[in-house]
């Protein structure tokens, strides 16, 4: 991230959570009109970095039925389940809708099984 040039022309909507003794940064990037737009992840030991991207592939990206998923935050259910909350355009691109997908924390970092194209179950 530091001093590098990325193929994403916009980085936006950052959100940080502290899990497992590390800081996890989720952010959106790209053009929401392109299939490469989505939510990516970086990790750091301190809130001021340095931040290291965990994978080149986004955690979320546009798929048929979900256009431009991004501008996320993380909320925790009363049962302790972390959930990514984000918006995405409807297929007609007339309105954005709120979307929810559970986050699974693995030794390699967070995994989001989404974006969902229908109702999501928020259970552990």
Automatic annotation (TrEMBL):
It comes from the Bacteria. InterPro entries: Glyco_hydro_43 (IPR006710), Glyco_hydro_beta-prop_sf (IPR023296), Glycosyl_Hydrlase_43_Enz (IPR052176). Keywords: Carbohydrate metabolism, Glycosidase, Hydrolase, Polysaccharide degradation, Xylan degradation. Pfam families: Glyco_hydro_43. The keyword Transcription does not apply. Gene3D superfamilies: Glycosyl hydrolase domain, family 43. The keyword Hydrolase applies. Belongs to the glycosyl hydrolase 43 family. This is Glycosyl hydrolase family 43. It comes from Angustibacter aerolatus. The lineage of its organism: Bacteria, Bacillati, Actinomycetota, Actinomycetes, Kineosporiales.
């Amino acid at each position: 991230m530091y001093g590098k040039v990325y193929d994403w022309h916009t980085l936006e909507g950052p959100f940080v959570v502290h899990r497992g003794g590390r800081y996890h940064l989720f952010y959106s990037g790209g053009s929401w009109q392109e299939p490469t737009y989505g939510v990516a992840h970086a990790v750091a030991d301190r809130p001021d970095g340095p931040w290291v991207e965990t994978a080149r592939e986004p955690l979320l990206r546009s798929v048929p039925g979900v256009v431009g998923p991004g501008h996320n935050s993380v909320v925790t259910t009363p049962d302790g389940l972390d959930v990514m909350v984000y918006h995405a355009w409807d297929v007609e691109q007339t309105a954005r809708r709120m979307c929810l997908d559970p986050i699974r924390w693995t030794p390699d970092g967070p995994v989001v099984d989404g974006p969902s194209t229908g109702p999501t179950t928020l259970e552990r």
